[in-house]
Design goal:
This protein is 31% helix and 44% strand. The chain has helices at 2-15, 32-38, 44-59, 63-67, 95-109; strands spanning 70-82, 88-94, 110-126, 129-142, 147-161, 164-178. The chain has a 6-stranded mixed sheet with strand order 2-1-6-5-4-3.
Amino acid sequence: MKSKFFVYAALAFCLTTTAIPLSAKAMPAASPGNLAQAVAPLTEANVQTVLDRLQAARDSRDVEGTLSLIAPFAVTVVTVESGNGLSTVTTRLEGVEAHRQMLEQTFGQVQRRESLRNYVAIDIIDDNFGIAKIYQMENFETSAGEMLIAASQTVLRLGRVNGQVLVTSATVDGWISPRPTGN
């Protein structure tokens, strides 16, 4: 159970991150302004907007807000190593419902967070695809009173889905351990 929580906490820690229907919908004729908006290239600014919205959703424990930024077909692979290095757990999440379950469970188990380090690098590959690399370290307390420290490296792949910039896949490599107590 503890290792499952660690995996979920690592993902929420890193991804924290409305399903878009896959079926095509008829669209009314676009005005030139709307057309320009619909075909605007993926930029560092709109990727940063997605990251900011993910962070705000995480801070407010907003499951639906997080899911609104994840493509319905998104796949996330999370690998978490425990502090002693003897235990490594890898979890694969596919689709909105798997992400929803993880977020609901994690948001319910984390009582408090404190960011220690955070670094983001954004690379735009082309007009439709970008990558955000996120390096984080934080202390957190569980609802059971456990004090933990976690570090991770996350690679979010973002692309256009039905005209919106969304996370299409993620890879999270993390480490989590009980926080050392002071003397």
